[in-house]
Amino acid sequence: IEGWRKAGMRRFVLRPNSLCYRGVLPRGFERYFYDNFQTALKNGMIGCDYDGSCRRVMDFEYYAVARAISDPTIGFDTIEREFLSQYGAAAPVMKESYDRVRARGEVARIARQNLPAAEKEVVGDDSQLYKGMLEANPVEELERDLAVLRRAAAVEGLSPVERKRVELRLLLGEHALKTGKFLHARDTRPMKEFSKLGLDLLKFRTEICRKVPDEWGRLFRAYRCEVRWWRHMRQALKAKHPEMELDD
Asked: What is the three-class DSSP state of 193?
């Protein structure tokens, strides 16, 4: 932005693809997107148009962007308190959960942006899945995430709707762990083991798909999301599920 201002720019419209993410692994970019919005606003932004894929795993990111748009003067700490209030008495533990994801997501994002130009991943969309998001989410961290979410689900005194919200996050944590094991196994485990993880993940997704509304088909077919992993186990997948489409 500073470079364009020196070149004579006075006003501009912000139109990022920051919210275009079809992955299952958590990112924790809510503070980054908020700061990005504020930087643009201070440097001449007169409007914004965010493209995106509204998904449960991105709930805090969407809330932070929406609140900044609705009230540019609001601070991030206020946004965070508002967002976490939906979890009632479990809010402190849920804050720990979101903080964990954000801390390591930011480390991975900055590391990616500091690479040489040809290797950078500066757009927070599906292009970050394989390198940036896998780096940010080793299996052991996803297991620790799940342990925190289980503590949140064990909090007493939640209303039915608050408990439902916590349990949804717990389900997303289980999904992230199973997906992470599958994604990491492609380059580290024998094909037979990798394929079994894939088939087990597919079975799990069929069990939860009605509880977690999503455009599930895009996980298997959308470019730069998981399609390369499912193609890698094409033979095992077609043998078990010949009806599956992989952009053949």
From this structure: helix
